[in-house]
Amino acid sequence: MSEAAPLAGPAPGPAAQPRAGRSFRIGPSVGLLPFFVYVFIFLIIPTITVAVGAFRDDDGGYSLTKIRLLGDETALAALRNSLVLSFSSAAIGAVLGALLAYLVVTAPPTSAVRRIVSAVCGVLAQFGGVTLAFAWMATLGFNGLLTQLLADTVGTDPSGVPWLYGMRGLVLVYTYFQIPLMVIVFLPALEGLQPQWREAAVNLGATSWQYWTQVAFPLLRPAFLGSALLLFANAFAAYATAAALISQGSFITPLLIRNSLTSEVLLGQRNFGFALALEMVVVVAIVMSLYAWLLKRTSRWL
Amino acid sequence: MSTVAWRVTRWILLIAFATYFLIPLAALLNFSTKDPFTRERSLAAWRALAQDPTMTEAITTSLLLALLTVVGMVVLLVPTMIWVKLRVPRATRLIEFLCLLPLTIPALVILVGMKNVYAWVNYLVGDSPLTLTFVYVVLVLPYSYRAIDASLGSLDATTLAEAARSLGASWFTVITRVILPNIWPGVLGGAFIAVALVLGEFTIASLSHYNTLPVVIVFINKANAPESMAAALASLLFAALLLVLLSFLDRRRHHSGGK
User: Fold this and answer.
1) Does B101 touch chain A (CB under 8 A)?
2) Tell me: the pLDDT tens digits for A235-252?
3) How far does CA A43 lie from the centroid of its chain?
4) What structural domains does chain A harbor?
5) Collapsing DSSP states into helix, strand and coil, what is residue B41?
6) For residue A42, which residues of chain B lie inside 8 Å, CB to CB?
7) CA–CA separation, B62 and B212 (whole Å)
8) What is the C-alpha to C-alpha distance for residues A185 and A126, in angstroms, rounded to an integer?
9) Which of A262, A288, B222, B226 has the most crowded CB, counting CB atoms within 10 A?
10) A301 pLDDT more than 80
11) Is the predicted ipTM greater than 0.85, yes or no?
């Protein structure tokens, strides 16, 4: 498509004859210039900087040194952990989120249950991860609510559960914002399930089980997988929760990026952040294009 | 499944979900109202929110950032979207693509690449936490775009604009006094989400070493955990309030749309 093409040239007409601006194809496009310039400066240039920086070495020349560093044990382990974390939190979040969405959608549209769930989900899914990390620290960490409760009743360690600050803790805390996000993105698909389809199936003699396995699930599958992919990208790109929970260490990619930014002076660390960031963009971009493709398939029916 | 069994299962599941979501919030409240040493109830942490200068400064910074981001978003995005709708419809897909792009480019990546751009920003307008506004406007684009697009899509903007133009209105008047009042709920919705996002944003602020509210919450936790828990809960409740207000606006829009 050549939608943006007319923007490239200079604008001869409208400046000289403002009244005639209408007849020039280029005239109105000029009005979009501020937006393009802004997005270019604050979104495109940083992205290009990352992409170019990943292929630079410490002397300013071009090389594949930093990209090769991605194959290092540290970077690979971080990527593996990130993928495992994103996958498990997305899988758990998608299944439980779809279940909660179904519970909500079967309630009448004006019911209190529905309104409360939507509001709570909106907050938890969209309001940054720092507070959520802290909420779980206040629950299971030192002096936490459940910690004390369990220590007083069952007699567990009163200093909190140690795994909160590791992989299992991250999965638990990530799930806390993944389930709400799933409810938000999956609810419209569930709402699009027409009652007539169920009536038609029942009229033809289908049991409830047959309706679900042969009509509803196949219809919802693209939406479900698409939402799960969105959750995956969301977890993979998340930084705040992990950073607030784990102040030292770098066992997932975003934390490794933090590490390379704060210890930039170390030899060989310069620009390594660019390579890691590029890796992150590539993973998220692949997942998001799959998501867009599935979204298109969903819109055929729902 | 019989109806009774289903209703019981449904409520059990809903209660299970509610427990899972409420326990951490209750824990925040519990932690922030308890003295860590004597374990007695005290409101000292909540009082400190208004008295601790580090905290009040961070709250002020974050609120100002939220305000500036909303202003920036409205000034940049609203006229552009109206203009695309009225005069350059062939650019619709391009603008949509650019607005949704920040969903694919994580904030952490923008931060890693924005050093050069921010060297210029700091050189031109000075070094202040409020300069984060520039990049925050980009971060909120996808959410604001969706909110405004929903409003604009349900409006016959072209006819309105033609009517106004034929009565002699300038394009500025058309945008600010004809179209804008009609898409106000969408703009307001986009603004609310932008405020919530900015108040919770940690990634860019912390790695640029600016003391916004989430950064200070993490920082202060080491010295005074109850105070940081109180601040976390307070900001969460504030965001919740904003989004609940938003849902009421949404309902009003559906009402007027249905008539």
Assistant:
1) yes
2) 999 999 999 888 877 889
3) 18
4) 5-53 (no CATH), 72-298 (1.10.3720.10)
5) strand
6) 110, 114, 117, 134-135, 137-138
7) 5
8) 12
9) B226
10) no
11) yes
